[in-house]
Amino acid sequence: MMKKKGFVSIGMPVYNGEKFIDAAIQSLLHQTHRNFELIISDNASTDTTETICREYAIKDKRIKYFRQPQNFGAEHNFKFVLDEAYGEYFMWASCDDIFSKNFVEINQKFLSENLDYVASTCPTGFDIGPLNQQTLIDFALNGNVIERFIKFFDYSYVSHGIFYSLIRADVLRGCEVIGQAFFASDWFIDLYLALNGKVHRSSDGYTVFG
After folding, report:
1. How far apart are CA 79 and CA 158, in angstroms?
2. Which residues fall within 8 angstroms of residue 51, CB to CB, at 6 or more apart?
3. What are the C-alpha distances in Å from 107 to residues 29, 91, 128, 179?
4. Which pLDDT does position 121 carry in this prediction?
């Protein structure tokens, strides 16, 4: 598969996300960086998720909607959207997360200019109240490999932003455990990224986790 230089692929695995997915899709369609595709994989939802997604896909050609014939489990769904990705950069987006309008622009620009970094993200908070009243999570993984690993385990329980960062797609595809189900598989992927390069955290933008 020929990757499209500078192009961003966003993968959204979902199951029964009718309560949140409309706002999540809106936050991605309003990104200041317009050069992207949104790949939605519906794991055989039994609510109105399919209707919502198909309506968006009709309106915006950047959206690719897939409905799985049966629920194959979350891990399969996360791998599916990566396998369908076309871009030079990739990020996962949950159906209940909200990204600042400049999230993709900030992180794509940084990665294009800093080749020793494999991923880049923004400060993160949670859907528990106004962001300006929260202590946002903003640690990065810099330094050598050992320093990056130590920093990760110091903050592993608030490491969500690393997994949901913008990542070089070629690097991420080299992680063979994607799609496998085991405890802390997201941590494994985070550490795989840290092994292969630095992970940046900007001072601007944000992600709100649902």
Report:
1. 23
2. none
3. 16, 11, 25, 25
4. 98
